[in-house]
Amino acid sequence: MDSPSKKKRKLDSDKNENTLQTISLENIKLPLGFRFKPKDSSLITLYLIRKILNNRPLPTNAIKDIVFYDFDPDQLPIGEFSGYCRHKEAYFFTEVVPGRTTKSGGLWKVHGPYVPIMSGDVVLGFKKYFVFYSAGEEKTNWNMYEYRLNPRLIRADSPNELLKSKIDYFVICKVRYREDDENLSTDDDDTTSCSDDENETSDNETTSRFEQDQSKTSKSDDDQ
Q1: Half-sphere exposure (CA, 13 Å, Cβ side) for 113?
Q2: CA-CA-CA-CA torsion for 99, 179, 183, 143, nearest 10 degrees?
Q3: H or E element: which one contains 140?
Q4: CB burial class (10 A; 0-12, 13-18, 19+) of residue 119?
Q5: 64-65 and 107-110 beta bridge pairing
Q6: What CATH number was assigned to the domain covering residues 38-197?
Q7: Going by C-beta distance under 8 Å and a sequence separation of 6 or more, which residues neighbour residue 198?
């Protein structure tokens, strides 16, 4: 008969397997020959804002939901995205956890400040660079950019506490295994983008619609 601790580990293992099984390359709908490499600004305006507000469809479903910090990076289903992203690279929606530690005891350590992501004079959001250290505190070649929405885009007097919470904790993580001879500058997201050319919505237009949605939401709350 299994001990309670063994049963718990088995349940955790089953949960992780079920989470990974929900991410399948067959379910990613992108045009033939499409390479998913959006600009930083597009990750905010075309994906993260829409995901948080849940008011408009995403351009593609290439960014998957996952309980990111349940796994070490080499346990993530990154290989399943090889047909659309660069080698050993993938994008995920997730919620940040305190300390950014994984269940194995590994740690994503910050290796730089928050960098603003701009559209004209508007700060859309921020990105920060992390490197993964194993449970034995050994530095690995796994790196990650975390993208978050600028909370000031939401009205300070907005009564929607759930929305405020999602802005604080809901992010996009871009994970990649970097070879030893790769330079960090090769990871510049603002050089090329396949998805932006295919999408008719500009960053400014999306930002404008976002602000209009916030105004409508606030007016609706005031009328109630």
Answers
A1: 3
A2: -10
A3: strand 139-149
A4: middle
A5: unpaired
A6: 2.170.150.80
A7: 31, 34, 59
Q: Are 94 and 66 in contact (CB under 8 A)?
A: yes
Q: How far is CA 154 from CA 99, 101, 114, 202, in A?
A: 26, 29, 19, 20
What residues does each domain of the chain span? 38-197
DSSP code of residue 71: S
- pLDDT for 38-91, tens place per residue? 999 999 999 999 999 888 999 988 899 999 999 999 999 887 776 677 888 999
d(CA 218, CA 224) in angstroms, rounded, equals 10
- pTM of the predicted model as reported, rounded to 2 decimal places: 0.71
